[in-house]
Amino acid sequence: MVHHEDESLGTKSRWGWLAGRGELGFVAVIVIFATVMLYGGLTMTVLGSQTPGPQFFPILIAVLLYMAAAAILYSVLTHPQLPDGEPHPGRGNFSKDLLSDIGMVDRERVRRRYSRYSEQWTTYSDWKTVGLVVVGLVVFIVALKPVGWILSATFLFWMVVRALGSKRTFFDLGVALLFASIIQLAFNEGLGLPLPPGFLEGLL
């Protein structure tokens, strides 16, 4: 068989160093959100001397968010998602290594000129999933006060796992309800911060 080993062009992007590092914006959002939570927790007016107190949870979440942002930042800086120069079908659904292993086909590199229309990226934005998660967040925020935490959080959890591909509706709803109830109990009894009960007030 004939091997085509032409050097692949187009390694430079018009975005320069930022090419393949679009997740840096997501890292910035996490850091901003964590900073807001940390500031709110540290400046919170605390009544009484209950331990651990209402400051504990927001500070803990802020620290976890900082850790998550640091991990994502390290991954983005060390493994940027650059364009895939290897020709293979499926817009990235099949890795070239997998095709090479199972098909025993010769690798072929193609000479191409970089352009915003011709590059094939190894990962793609899944706007359907993002849209479903955003819809879930909006409904959660709007329904939190009138409907209450338990039902709103249950719906949000179910929407997120549904957007990520889960098809086990009743199982997901059961797990979501369990976690929402545990969080409600932890806030009400452990931290002394009652979450909105909604129309279930008096039953919780």
What does the model show?
By secondary structure, the chain is an all-alpha fold. 53% of the residues lie in helices and 0% in strands. Helix 4 (127-147) packs antiparallel against helix 5 (149-163) and helix 5 crosses helix 6 (169-191). The chain starts with 23 loop residues before the first helix and ends in a 13-residue tail after the last helix. The model is unreliable at 1-12 and 105-119 (pLDDT under 50).
Number of domains: 2
Number of strands: 0
Helicity range of the residues? 40-55%
Number of helices: 6
Overall geometric form: flat
Taken as a percent bin, the fraction of beta residues is under 5%
Q: Output the helix-strand order.
A: HHHHHH
Give Rg in angstroms: 24 Å
Q: In terms of per-residue confidence, which ranges show pLDDT below 50 for 5 or more consecutive residues?
A: 1-12, 105-119
Query: How far apart lie the N and C ends?
Result: 73 Å
Helical/strand content category: mainly alpha
The chain-level mean pLDDT equals 71
